[in-house]
Design brief:
Layout (H helix, E strand, L loop, with lengths): L2 E5 L3 H13 L4 E5 L3 H9 L5 E2 L10 E4 L3 H14 L5 E4 L5 H6 L9 E6 L20 E5 L6 H13 L3 E5 L1 H30 L11 H7 L6 H10 L1 H23 L3 H11 L2 H8 L1
Parallel strand pairs: 1-2, 1-4, 2-3, 4-5, 5-6, 7-8
Antiparallel strand pairs: 6-7
Helix pairs in contact: 6-9
Bound molecules: NADP nicotinamide-adenine-dinucleotide phosphate.
The site of NADP nicotinamide-adenine-dinucleotide phosphate (NAP) has 29 residues, from helix 1, helix 3, strand 6 and helix 8.
């Protein structure tokens, strides 16, 4: 592999660039982005070695598409139109159903691998890119059987080299599970932040009382709306399902409070402490 083109040199694209270059010093990392300024920053941070434009992907051995999921749906068919028959395109999008669907009948479908690296932070843009973001993290791969075997092998080696473990899933299952495991947490954090900000307008002191519990729970509310709005749009049905379940639990908790049923409140929390066992097993 000689030439890797990263479209979208933000948190995920930039972090992949750092680790891939470290493990493959002979490859040249090219960056493509909609804003020249973003590319200049990526260049100055040594995330990329050369600036490129979309038409240049004809020279790519590998293209990594790491832009918001609405832009991915628009760009992916064009990228596949442009690449050579031997090159591989992967996307990093947080939704998988719409992305897989848009290229299901593309003549170069076998050159595409759909992935979702379960790694990230609440920060975005090239300054957010960090080394070793993917070490020990899971990379979910969808519809692997639709990718040419030789290209699958190439991709799997690349992901293994940067420390990722692989899980296979179909796009529908991915979008359903990720709605619970990631999308709901972000909504919950955004709305917690909103609730407290609204209150703070009247009671400025509230932030003096903000401890590490509030800070860690509201961390995800710092995330980029530009990235998250299209995710919620593409995964609307699953996200609404998670919200219904979550709102039902919140309503029940409120009812227990109103009824002074603190035995039930205790039990709710005790039962949910089970999350410690689940997360300890996963880690
Ligand atoms: P990010 O830091 O905001 O980076 C996105 C990059 O894409 C930016 O450089 C942005 O450039 C560029 N971009 C936006 N629209 C574009 C377009 N139409 N054409 C070309 N470039 C465009 O976002 P990210 O967190 O890296 O997310 C990238 C992808 O990874 C998304 O699909 C996301 O769902 C997925 N993902 C994110 C996480 C996470 O935790 N953040 C985890 C796993 C997967 P500008 O400077 O011009 O805005």
């Amino acid at each position: 592999m000689k030439n890797i083109y990263i479209i979208g040199v933000g948190l995920i694209g930039g972090s992949l660039a750092i680790d891939i270059k470290k493990k493959n010093p002979d490859v040249t990392i090219h960056g493509i982005d909609r804003q020249e300024e973003t590319l200049d920053i990526a260049l100055s941070l040594n995330l990329i070695e050369k600036k490129a434009i979309l038409d240049d992907v004809v020279n790519a051995d590998l293209v990594i598409l790491s832009v918001p999921v609405d832009a991915t749906v628009k760009l992916l068919p064009t990228v596949l139109d442009l690449i050579s028959d031997k090159s591989l395109v992967v996307d990093a999008g947080s939704t998988k159903e719409d992305i897989c669907k848009v290229v299901e009948n593309h003549p170069k479908r076998r050159n595409f691998l759909a992935m979702h690296p379960i790694a990230g932070t609440e920060h975005s843009g090239p300054h957010a890119a960090i080394p070793e973001l993917f070490v020990g993290k899971t990379n979910i791969i969808c519809e692997v059987e639709k990718t040419a075997f030789k290209l699958q092998e190439k991709a799997l080696k690349l992901f293994a080299d940067i420390g990722m473990r692989i899980r296979y899933m179909n796009p529908q299952a991915h979008d359903k599970h990720i709605a619970y495991m990631s999308h709901l947490s972000h909504i919950s954090s955004f709305m917690l932040g909103k609730t407290v900000i609204n209150k703070e307008k009247n009671e400025r002191d509230i932030f003096d009382m903000a401890g590490s519990g509030f800070e860690s729970t509201v961390r995800l509310a710092k995330s980029s709306p530009e990235m998250w709005t299209p995710i919620f749009e593409q995964n609307k049905t699953n996200v609404i399902e998670t919200l219904e379940a979550y709102i039902a639990n919140l309503t029940q908790f409120k009812e227990f409070m109103e009824k002074d049923d603190f035995e039930a409140i205790f039990k709710e929390m005790k039962d949910t402490n089970y999350i410690k066992d689940i997360l300890n097993v996963i880690v």
